[in-house]
Specification:
Layout lengths: L7 E5 L3 E4 L5 E4 L1 H11 L3 E8 L4 H10 L3 E6 L4 E6 L6 E6 L15 E7 L16 E7 L5 E4 L2 E4 L5 H5 L4 E5 H8 L4 H7 L4 E5 L5 E5 L2 E5 L12 H14 L4 H18 L6 H4 L4
Parallel strand pairs: 1-4, 1-8, 2-6, 4-5, 8-9, 9-12, 12-13
Antiparallel strand pairs: 2-3, 6-7, 10-11, 13-14, 14-15
Helix pairs in contact: 1-6, 6-7
Length: 282
């Protein structure tokens, strides 16, 4: 572990069991990838999650090995996704969903952090009222909130409760295909204004990302990297962005740093320790 930065980070959401087409499984989800990224960047990281008690030791082992504090709440099911990255589009099918995380599930001492990363992976993963007890720079990944189970698998669809989440965050992030179902004829700037989102990030893979702020729309160039480990790249992007913003960096600089961190995840499968000092050039 690298020396700590003094910055604190909290990640909320379901730890997942990710199942590959061949049948192998591994820990996954926003809390897994973002928690490890925050720890590698030197933050004091905490994770609050839900899973079946029998699954928690295995799924949380990598986080605990990285000295991430974990609060594992009991759930009737462990969130499980079948993921397929072999085609032109990534496919994600929700096979099982955990019970929701409610305000009472967060100890008072855990409710404040410099960077707070919300990673709901299904629509009832994190209750909207849970956001009301949080204090810090709050960012949310919209991926689970714009997905639902359909007749032929998981599909993208608008969520009428989304406004309850967006009203309480500083940063919202979505992939390009996810944000498309929310625009309904609006521009990104119009969507951000309507929901009063101070900073909106839209990731576009190898084409980089868009950052929409009150000052306008910025292009964040992608950092080229061999596509060896695509899983978790978006989670790391938001975690690194929140880390940089909580450290006092402006949105443009934070976006560039997030692009570097995401590229490291894609190439290596993790963010190298000491990355914030060695790669960002600060």
């Amino acid at each position: 572990m690298r020396e700590g930065t003094g910055l604190s980070a909290l990640v909320l959401g379901a730890i997942t069991r990710d199942v590959e087409p061949a049948g192998a499984s591994s820990p996954g989800g926003v809390v897994h990838y973002a928690g490890l990224a925050f720890a590698a960047l030197g933050a004091h990281a905490r994770v609050v999650t839900r899973s079946r008690p029998d699954d928690a030791p295995e799924l949380l082992a990598p986080l605990r090995a990285a000295n991430v504090e974990t609060r594992a709440l009991e759930s009737r099911e462990t969130t499980t996704y079948a993921n397929d990255y072999s085609g032109s589009e990534d496919l994600h099918e929700l096979l099982a969903a955990s019970d929701p995380i409610a305000p009472a599930d967060l100890p008072p001492a855990w409710r404040r952090a410099d960077a707070i990363h919300l990673g709901p992976l299904h629509r009832r993963d994190l209750l909207p009222e849970t956001l009301s007890v949080l204090e810090g720079c709050i960012g949310i990944d919209l991926q689970g909130l714009v997905r639902r189970r359909g007749a032929t698998g998981t599909e993208l669809a608008p969520n009428p409760e989304l406004k309850e989440y967006l009203a309480r965050v500083t940063v919202a992030k979505a992939a390009e295909e996810e944000i498309a179902v929310l625009l309904e004829g609006r521009t990104l700037a119009e969507l951000a204004r309507e929901h009063r989102i101070p900073e909106l990030l839209v990731t576009r893979g190898a084409r980089g990302a868009l950052l929409v702020t009150q000052r306008g729309e910025l292009e964040i160039a992608a950092v080229p990297a061999p596509r060896r480990f695509p899983t978790g790249a978006g989670d790391v992007f938001l975690a690194a962005y929140l880390f940089a913003r909580a450290s006092g960096r402006e949105p443009r600089a934070a976006g560039r740093f997030a692009a570097r961190a995401s590229a490291a995840q894609v190439e290596h499968g993790f963010v190298p320790e000491g990355f914030a000092l060695e790669e960002a050039g600060w």
